[in-house]
Amino acid sequence: MSSNLLVLLVLFLGVLAIGKSVKERHIENKLSRALSRVNGQPSASSLMSADCRAGIAINSDGTAICMAGGNWINTEVFTASEVLSAELYIDGECETRTSRTSQIGGALVGGLLLGGVGVIVGGLTGRKKSHRMVSSIDLRVMVNDTHNPLHEVRLLGREQSRNSPQVKKIIDSARAFHARLDVMIKRADREDREAERLESLALQSKQAAAPSLSIADELRKLGELKASGDLTEAEYQTLRARLIT
Question: What distance lies between CA 60 and its chain's CA centroid?
Answer without folding.
Answer: 17
